[in-house]
Amino acid sequence: MAMKVKEVAELASISVRTLHHYDEIGLLTPDEVTSAGYRLYSDANLEMLQQILFFKELDFSLKDIKSIITNPSFDREEALNMHRRILLEKRQRLDHMIATIDRSVLHMRGEIHMTTKEQFEGFDFSENPYEQEARERWGDQVVDEANRKLQNKSAREQKAVSDEMNEIYTRLAKLRHTDPASDEAQEGITEWYTRLNNMGSYSPEAFRGLGQMYVDDERFTRNIDQFGKGLALFMRDAMAVFADRKS
User: Fold this and answer.
1) What is the residue range of the signal peptide feature (predicted)?
2) To pair with 29 at 20 to 30 A between CA atoms, which of 3, 9, 135, 239?
3) Buried residues in 89-103 as b, exposed as e (16+ CB within 10 A)
4) Banded pLDDT at 45 (limits 50, 70, 90)
């Protein structure tokens, strides 16, 4: 039986606006539209929506999802099996991290002892979920150069890079309630610009675009704001000031 857009939104726990957007970009077009303009979704539409939401859960962009599900070779059962496999791997990784958190609490209380290696069990940043989006925005050259520089480093050097970036995030988080154009803020954001260019090749405008992504993409916002709520927005503004002064 066909379902109206509000019914589908409630069923899938998404907004009506989201469904309208999917229709507008050709990602999910309802099989029927009444003379009054009401969208009616068929069972096949609901099956496709399920696929879209699974892909979104795995951080695929809407552009990539559309490319995948509109491909003539797309196999729904094969995709579901892939979703299941990846989600099981994700669950295993999250379970491991939760166990590390529980042990860390006991370690802080002095009830057990954890080695430094045990404190970081469950973390795996060997793959960058934002790499494809970076390629689409700035081209392969910037990303390939960053990967090449990082891959040429030893594991110890790569950890040192990660630690340095986290230190910059921490210092910027302490400034996030100040004026992004202040000397202190710009000194910190210049350090961030220099750090990024040690890994790749970012023009001031690309740097500005990256800052905007920190706010536009909730995945970036969520990760950056772990260092302090509002840090992503502060960095966006500070990076824009930096780019303006370099232009």
Assistant:
1) none
2) 135
3) eeeeeeeeeeebeeb
4) very high
Quickly name the fold that domain 131-246 has. Globin-like (1.10.490)
Rounded percentage of the chain residues whose pLDDT exceeds 70: 83
- How far is the CA of 114 from the CAs of 92, 100, 155, 229, in angstroms? 21, 10, 21, 29
Closest CA to 213 of 129, 127, 149: 129
Q: Which residues, other chains included, contact 15 with Cβ-Cβ below 8 Å and sequence gap of 6+?
A: 9
Domains of the chain, residue spans: 3-69, 79-119, 131-246
* CATH for the 3-69 domain, from 3.90.1010.10, 1.10.3720.10, 1.10.490.10, 1.10.1660.10: 1.10.1660.10
Give the model's pLDDT for residue 64.
82
How is residue 214 written in tokens? Answer: 């920190």
The residues, any chain, with a CB within 8 Å of residue 209's CB and separated by 6 or more, are 137, 138
pLDDT greater than 80 at residue 36: yes
Cα separation, 132 vs 10, in Å, equals: 32
What is the residue whose two structure tokens read 């939104």?
9
Residue 243 DSSP SS3 = helix
Beta bridge partners of 33: 39
The answer, yes or no, to whether residue 226 has pLDDT greater than 80, is yes
Q: For the stretch 43-54, what's the b/e string if a residue is b when 16 or more beta carbons lie within 10 angstroms of its beta carbon?
A: eebeebbebbbb
